[in-house]
Amino acid sequence: MTSPLLDVSELRTSFRTVGGSARAVDGISFTIAPEETVGLVGESGCGKSVTALSILRLIRPPGAIEPGSRITFESRDLLALPEAEMRAVRGARIAMVFQEPMTSLNPVLTVGAQVAEVVRVHAGASKAEAWRRAVETLAAVGFPDPAARALDHPHQLSGGLRQRVMIAMALVMRPALLIADEPTTALDVTTQAQILERLAALQAAMAMSVLLITHDLGIVAERAQRVIVMYAGQIVEEAPVRELFAAPHHPYTKALVAAVPRLGVRRERLETIPGQVPSADAWPTGCRFRERCPRAFDRCAVEPPLYRIGSGHRSRCHLDAPGGAA
Amino acid sequence: MTRLLARRAAQGVVIVWLVATFTFVLIALAPGDIVDATVSLDRSSAVTRAHLRAELCLDRGLVVRYGCWIRSLATGNLGWSLARRRPVSALLAEAIPNTLLLMGLAIAGSLLLGLAAGIAQAWRPRSALDRGIGAISMFFYSMPDFWLALILMFLFAYLAHWFPVSGTTDPAVYPSLGFWGRFGDRARHLVLPAGTLILLTSAAVSRFQRSAMLEVLAQDFVRTARAKGLSEWQVLTRHVLRNALLPVITLLGLSLPGLLGGAVLVERVFSWPGMGMLATAAVTDRDYPLVVAATVVASVMVVVGSLLADVLYALVDPRVRAG
Amino acid sequence: MRSWIRACERGDVMLFGWFVCLAAGALAVWAVHRGARGGSAGPWRRGLAHLASDRPAMAALFILAMLAALAILAPVVAPYLPNAQPDVVSGNNQPPSLDHLFGTDFASRDVFSRVLFGGRISLAVAALAVLLSTCLGTAYGAVAGFHGGRLDGVMMRVLDAALSIPRILLVMAVVAVARSITVPTLVLLLGVTGWFGTSRMVRAQVLSLREQDLTTAARALGARDREILWRHLLPNVASTVIVAATLSLGNVIILEAALSYLGIGIRPPTPSWGNIIQDGSSQLASAWWMALFPGLAIVITVLAINTLGDALRDALDPRTVDGT
Q1: Minimal C-alpha gap between A88 and chain B (Å)
Q2: Chains meeting C at 3+ CB pairs closer than 8 A?
Q3: Three-state DSSP class for A308?
Q4: Terminus-to-terminus CA distance in chain C, angstroms?
Q5: pLDDT digits over B144-188, tens only?
Q6: Which of residues 122 through 181 in chain A touch B, CB cutoff 8 A?
Q7: Pick the CATH number of B89-322 from 3.40.50.150, 1.10.3720.10, 3.40.50.300, 1.10.10.60
Q8: Where in chain B is the domain with CATH 1.10.3720.10?
Q9: What was the ipTM of the complex prediction?
Q10: Model-level pTM?
Q11: How far apart are CA B112 and CA B109, in angstroms?
Q12: Rounded to whole angstroms, how far apart are CA atoms A181 and A189?
């Protein structure tokens, strides 16, 4: 088995608040293999974005990654790197695409300049060379008439075009890993499909891994090979995609899968999960899903570890304990 | 963009017109007869009296007088100075360049200083540097302009003898100096008055710049820039600064009247022969045609300055350029 | 014959007066802390709590309360009457000493006492003027913002014109025309020239509130225009107005000082911080204390006002989340 591209181990990221501290990510461990697409799903507030930012060491005070966490990428410990070397990783080896194309681009610079900037910072290229590569990458992401329109400013472009610019910015240096944080949430459905299609093609062409963060299970079902489900700062289930949808184990995953409306299935009402996600500054003791779980029982007062069920499938639920529950 | 500027220019004309109307009301309400007041100081003949009366349309009704006033302002006839016995426009024409010189230096200097201070503060918010600069800014921001001028004069002119106390040049020495000597003499005389204005204005700019930069720093595209692998310095200078400059340009445009007001007092303290010095002397002499005309001219200067600020804004922000 | 020289006959009364002033400062700070802790959980409580935790602001409040008390109690706490000349023969232009904390001026008057009495006038004039301009500005801004449309456009053009004239020039123009100016007229003038900024802020606030649901809800319940303005919008505008008033207070104090310095504000022999500086400016090289101390008084006062104003703005801003 080849060594993983990214190996996250016991990642804990907390934020200092007025009351104390809130641990948004509480002991996450997972790996991403080369050329693999991993989906990271969960409700808002579960810590997925913080995980992504932690990998890139973009967490700023009052937040901090706790000691004891380890993030290994291409056999290097990212958390131990001096800042200058980490900067060389950001944007060149690991790149990130953000959710809001409206506000994620600098309004006063042309889009071409913003893409070219990545090349100039990392490859030390001349202005002309960087511009050429920028236009080339814009064409690759399906940006129309790139030579001319690279001179446009973000406010002159639609949301879909802006997101393509973001993707171009991320891919221009051919990173090994792309982290896409809700890349299409702010776009309409047709544009969503186009962008995801294009992303998949580029990924194959560049032999890139993708960490796809989303709350939309439909996207994950279509694009990911493996899925990690997060809840309240922890991983609650992890499985290959088909297995996750065919046979979810964790009650939360089951509820999520059941909540997705499906064509052809008659339903009187939409399924919802009662209750609310607990707040990061006061994680409940024991299993964090206990309050909302239809199958909670007395053992759930103790926090379940991630049990292994079959190959590549883990679940944080006492019902999946070896030897059965109770 | 030209459409935007044309609209602003038209608004500017309306503003100046409103100010002119206001000044007309003031004059109309003035106790006493302006011609008599002029003439009593001048002891001219009756012919001149009649001439003045006709010029100011004083013998006609109020509405006609108003028309007269607006027309004379528009043609550059700003009235007659009671105390100095010369046309106001001539007096102002001599004085305004000096004021413009002072204000131009003040704006440039305070932009530089204020920008530097604001950047230094936003670099590490809530650090000792941030708080220190903030405290100093607050201190200067709370100072009366004329008092700071006096203190600086005391320290650097009286105590230290580095700079002269008043005027634009040293009349005893200036005529005999060569080009660089004259330049140096003028520069020496400029330091204290301009320095006072720069210190006061940059306090306001730096406070504003700091909050503008912090606001921009919190925006999403800054996070994107960091994710691209740029250093904090590159993020600040290439991405944050240009965006944070926008509200500062707006601020400068809005603070022109305040700057002009500050110039009035500083000119008085340093006997700097500009518009402010002229106006303060005129007030003491109750030479109201001069003061009133200065008011109208001041508003014209502010309007023009605001237009320039708008142009500058459009140059920096492409979103405005598109229309 | 000391009685006509000293403002108060007994030194212990004077000391007591000073003690009262210090107590006034402490009282103000205590009141804020009490309000922050107190029972009712109104929206003001959170703002007060924010304020109480801001130490520079509390220091500023202490100073301001003490200054206000000093201004009121000037006759009691000043060592001399402002126009008293204790030593006409040789007491002029004396540097600061134990007898005369801030020295004496050219007419051998005690500068310290003059500064105290001057503070009385300066603060009173400023407070009244700000009161006037706040009322005018709020009314103007509220009407403009509420009605919108053409009326708003016209009102705003007038406002722009008024704002384009430097305030000091405006006052100077009026004074030049009017030839003489009494203190009440000065207050009126300062008030009338100072409402522009406040009205802009109020108008902006009212405009945004107008679009919000609270107005729609009130209208849906059948409230009339005037009712909406008074009972629903204005209380929300209150915090903006308070902040605007506080910050403009500092400007007015400086403006009044400038006018008095130029000779068109408060006239001597009535002391005002500005005209004491004017007296001192002609003796700057030889008797610097006359110009320094009143100016310092202004700086301290305005600094305290601005600090408090900034803190108030942070505290009353509804977007300020606890701890942020």
Answers
A1: 6
A2: A, B
A3: strand
A4: 61
A5: 999 999 999 888 888 777 787 787 777 777 777 788 888 888 888
A6: 122, 153, 155-156, 166, 169
A7: 1.10.3720.10
A8: 89-322
A9: 0.85
A10: 0.79
A11: 5
A12: 17
